[in-house]
Every structure is written in structure tokens, then in C-alpha cells.
Amino acid sequence: MSYTHTILITGGTTGLGYQTALLLASQNPRNLIIIASRTDKTLSAQAINTALSQRNVLFLPLDLSSTTSIRTFVNSWTAHTPAYPPIRALLLNAALQFPGGLHTTPAGIESTFAITHLGHALLFYLIFPHLANTARIVITSSGTHDPAQKTGVPDAVYTTAAELARPTAATQGNAGRQRYSSAKLANVLWTYALHRRLERLAGQSEGKHITINAFDPGLMPGTGLARESSGIEKFIWKSVLPRIIPLLRLLITPNIHTPEESGASLAYLATDREVEGRSGVYFEGRKAVQSSVDSYREKKQEDLWRWTVEYLAVDEGEKARFEIV
Fold first, then answer.
1. CA–CA separation, 43 vs 45, rounded Å?
2. Residue by residue, what is the 3-state secondary structure of the chain?
């Protein structure tokens, strides 16, 4: 079958990503839906195809903690063009928490930051030529990035990107969940930095109007986010909290949802006509809201952008391409 466009979603094998992929596959049978994740133990792509009696969902392996894996993924993508048509929506959704001590990748980068921010940034930079002229990019952030929301997660702290990537003696002992909230703040900072560059690109290139927005899916008990937690924490997260979501909404915040509910919101941001042309916006579900005070600090946005490009680019030519404009 020939497809008109591609929708690419990272972390689409479970939870929010899976529910988003399921809905998008159902709504867009003429689009190729690609789920990219480190593994697909549950055969999620096959399960969606079977459930819908379709064949438009495909799993591709991608380890966002490894720059080698990301480059291999994009090289393979390029080799398969035009089998993979232009990307209509790029959903940078994958994330992971490490509640215990400091975790680093083999390259020495703090793992939460590596997966949640750096891996997605490199994927975007490399796959940019394959984006449709009106592609939408949505990055899944979190309300935990905003200290004003009182989520119970330690407050996000952004000093420099270098500090988040390679914690110094002063921050090596920070809680894992604080690293998570800080990485989610990085998602929003990067969204705003990229938005400015895409606006300039649109002004220089007729027909190129790519948008970027950040998305808070709310708290979603039962998802795979807690898979690195202790046994009792995983039990509560997976088996107890999902049963009392209405009570949690009353006692804590209305911004608590099932993966199905948040998946529908992410699918809406990816393809609905009501969002067409909107860019540089932070959405809580389907509602545009203000992000944290720190997220609007342009100095922090540019520090993150510059450090990210410098770290990921392998030569001056790549650095120039990653700058977008």
C-alpha cells in the first residue's frame, strides 16, 4: 500500500505513546504510523494492526540514549525513502525516570537528560530533511517542570545545559525525580528556542511552515514511566493509583488522566485542524497555558540550544545544519 505521509512517535510501545499511535492509526489509515522505541516486547505495532484490521503501523528500534543508535535509525530511514513518505507529525514522546542515584550513559551523560532531551534533539536535527513542509512537532513535557504547580516532584532547576548533562560534585547527589523535572524543563526551553528558528526559516522559505509545541499529558498512573522504581512503588503506580483516578482528581489536581485520555490529546495536537499553524505554545492537554517562569528565560533557552548543537554535531558542516537557519 502507498501511504501519503508518515507519523513518527518515540516511545510508542506502551502507555501514552501506544494509545496515541492506536488512535492516529485508526484516524489516518492512509498514513504510515511508525513507533520507535528501544524494544517492542509487547509487539505493540502488530497489536494495533490486528485490532484495527489494518497494516499501517510499523515498529522500528531506536535507543535514544545512544547517538550511534539514533544515527543508524536516520540512515536507515533515508535509505528507505520514498517507502517512508514525508513526516507529517514528529511526536517526541519517550522519557524515563531514574528515582535512585545518578545514572549515566556509556558516553558519560546523565541518563534522564540524555533520553528526554538530547536523544530527541539529535533525532530532530538528523531527520529534519524528511519533514513535510507543514510538519508538526510535539514534544511531551510535564507539569513537573513548573514549581508553581506543586506536583510533589522536586522543583526543576536549570543552571546550564552542561551541568544537567554532566552533574558536578554540587549536583551529583540530586534526587532522580529532580533530574526528571529538570529534563522536562529542558523540553520546554528547547521548544521555544526551536520555535524562533522555525519562524525565521518560514520567513526565508516559501511553503516551509513547520511548527513546534510542548505538551503536558498530566499525571498518568499505570504507564511505564515508573519501571525503574522499587517494587512497592511500581505496584502502587501500576495497580493502585489507576483505580482511584477520580478520587485523585478531587484530592490533588484535575490534571490526572488515563493514557487513553492523554493519548487523545496528543493525537489532537498532532493532526487536528484547530491546531494548524500554532507554534511555540505549551499545552496542558488541549488547552494552551503558561509554562513555568524559568521556561521563558531566553538566556536559558539559548544556553541549552548552543550546548546541544555543540555536543551533538560531529563537524562544522553538521553544526551549521543543526542550527537550522
1. 6
2. CCCCEEEEEECCCCHHHHHHHHHHHHHCCCEEEEEEECCCCCCHHHHHHHHHCCCCEEEEECCCCCHHHHHHHHHHHHHHCCCCCCEEEEEECCCCCCCCCCCECCCCCEHHHHHHHHHHHHHHHHHHHHEEEEEEEEEECCHHHCHHHCCCCCCCCCCCHHHHHCCCCCCCCCCHHHHHHHHHHHHHHHHHHHHHHHHHHHHHCCCCCCEEEEEECCECCCCHHHCCCCHHHHHHHHHHHHHHHHHHHHHCCCCECCHHHHHHHHHHHHHCHHHCCCCCCEEECCEEECCCCHHHCHHHHHHHHHHHHHHHCCCHHHHHHHCCC
Rounded CA gap, 177 and 157, in Å? 11
Residue from 137, 84, 142 nearest 112 by CA: 142
Residue 78's contacts (CB-CB under 8 Å, 6 or more residues apart) are 130
Mean pLDDT of the chain: 91
Q: Give the phi and the psi of residue 173 in degrees, each rounded to 5.
A: -90, 5
pLDDT tens digits for 298-318? 999 999 999 999 999 999 999
Instruction: Tell if the pTM clears 0.85, that is, is over it.
Output: yes
Looking at this protein, which amino acid is placed at residue 125? Y
Domains of the chain: 5-322 (3.40.50.720)
Backbone phi, psi, residue 212, to 5° = -140, 130
- Cα distances from 280 to residues 150, 205, 302, in angstroms, run 24, 19, 15
